[in-house]
UniProtKB/TrEMBL annotation:
Residues 2-249 form the PORR domain. The lineage of its organism: Eukaryota, Viridiplantae, Streptophyta, Embryophyta, Tracheophyta. Coiled coil: none annotated. GO terms for molecular function: RNA binding. PANTHER family: OS09G0473400 PROTEIN (PTHR31476:SF14), PROTEIN WHAT'S THIS FACTOR 1 HOMOLOG, CHLOROPLASTIC (PTHR31476). This is PORR domain-containing protein. Pfam families: PORR.
Length: 261
């Protein structure tokens, strides 16, 4: 028995391979940024492999990273687990998407998140004073490239760090969205808590959550237009969309039998 691809499918595979090769430098930067956000600047290879489609990382990335010894080092731990470690910190990469946006539209970013301070009614604040007080707890966000493990877990500062980190994580994905389970798979590396879902619910201006309780998707709202379409599409996303269109095609054979590709 022999099974193979049609010429049509072979051309599609070649096209996808070309996209992956052209985008390799960008994907390398994504992995570097993930490592720079991680607590110990190291992540299990299995976790990156499991979530590779989120970031457009090719299946053979474990072989490709051998070309980047200046950036990565792969070590094998005593239990046999392979871990990728950051070799060199790059300050030019340690700038989040939010920080870049802040330089362009400060007011927009200021309105993106809200971290109101809890206070007693004894303060007897009017609406204006309360708004000023809450503003102190809105910005600046804590950089996702800082060491979140040193923050007191339940402080406003720590929550700012976690919110900023998830924003940056989503900004690195192809479609600016991810399932909750994709995010919490990095819980230990990114100093997240079991209350990640509840934390995101408190930031409806920036995150949109959709799905079911066991399978929530988290979207970056600003990455999508009012029609729900992604505004800026990565070349891999454009190729995937083409593949989906082909998958929906119906092919008519000479015998008039119809089958779906």
């Amino acid at each position: 028995m022999w099974i193979g691809f049609t010429d049509f499918m072979e051309k599609l595979l070649d096209e996808e391979g070309k996209v992956m090769n052209e985008m390799e430098s960008d994907r390398v930067s994504v992995v570097r940024k993930l490592l720079m956000m991680s607590k110990d600047k190291r992540i299990a290879l299995s976790k990156i492999y499991h979530n590779r489609l989120l970031f457009g990382i090719p299946e053979d990335f474990r072989d490709r990273i051998r070309k980047y010894e200046d950036y990565f080092k792969v070590v094998v731990e005593e239990d046999g687990k392979r871990v990728i470690e950051l070799v060199k910190w790059d300050p030019t990469l340690a700038v989040s998407a939010l920080e870049k946006e802040y330089m362009v539209d400060e007011d927009k970013v200021k309105k993106a998140f809200k971290f109101p301070i809890k206070h007693g009614k004894a303060l007897d604040l009017d609406e204006g004073d309360e708004r000023k007080l809450n503003l102190l707890y809105t910005l600046p966000l804590v950089s996702p490239y800082s060491d979140g493990s040193k923050l007191d877990l339940w402080t406003v500062e720590a929550e700012k760090f976690r919110v900023g980190l998830i924003h940056e994580f989503l900004s690195l994905t192809l479609e600016k969205r991810a399932y909750i389970h994709n995010i919490v798979e990095f819980k230990e590396e990114f100093c997240l808590t079991k209350h990640t879902y509840q934390m995101l619910l408190k930031q409806p201006r920036t995150f949109y959550l959709a799905g079911t309780e066991m399978n929530w998707s988290v979207f970056l709202k600003d990455a999508y237009g009012e029609d729900g379409v992604l505004l800026n599409k990565d070349p891999q996303v454009l190729f995937n969309e083409k593949l989906y269109r082909y998958a929906d095609m119906k092919v008519v054979k000479p015998s008039s039998d119809v089958y779906e590709t």
